[in-house]
Hints:
This protein is mainly α. It is built from 15 helices and four strands.
Amino acid sequence: xxxxxxxxxxxxxxxxxxxxxxxxxxxxxxxxxxxxxxxxxxxxxxxxxxxxxxxxxxxxxxxxxxxxxxxxxxxxxxxxxxxxxxxxxxxxxxxxxxxxxxxxxxxxxxxxxxxxxxxxxxxxxxxxxxxxxxxxxxxxxxxxxxxxxxxxxxxxxxxxxxxxxxxxxxxxxxxxxxxxxxxxxxxxxxxxxxxxxxxxxxxxxxxxxxxxxxxxxxxxxxxxxxxxxxxxxxxxxxxxxxxxxxxxxxxxxxxxxxxxxxxxxxxxxxxxxxxxxxxxxxxxxxxxxxxxxx
Length: 294
């Protein structure tokens, strides 16, 4: 990437941080995608429609999701250049637009989740520090549907006695209320009784909180303890299980959207495909025509 292009990318990312409230992870992803795109262009900032149209061939071996992500980053980048009068035209119409099919999320059956809880509870009964912490992590992941980044960065006082909800700061620094079950409150309370008391984090690691990578490792180890293939389980799979099992229990899709912190209802609707059998049963039982005789 040329020095001029790097300066433009820096300005673009400054805008994304200030105006869109993008997280450091999002900014790093944008930078990486723009740098990779620049490798196939003579100049990123001065690229023409012909230059961008050739990217489709250069990216032919990439996964459609990667092509879509890079194209989206470039479209936003060129839109920024036009808005800030750094160039007159927007060539992004020439970018490839791969057709994407959203994959169904991996989920766990309720029985499998119960096995994880049984194994976690047995270990926590020993009073071992890590085991008590891990049970609290599991209760919040499955019981509240938190993202991994939201869970690991919870402040020490996030869960308060007698309060069935807590405030979580999610993507784009948006805040939302998430439910706290009595089970989760009890597990967190027991953890706080023995947790290190000199940190601001609910789940500390040294002077910081545990990382998402460490959470991933913990969850997989807990799955293995329960006799479940570790590669089938992750923090995000438990979030999916939270959503799918709530929907199976009759939760409203809009309520689920709010609990998960989805900006677009279309993102939440993926769970209607996962639990289609339950929805068919619901329509057959509750629709006004279901009981109408000929």
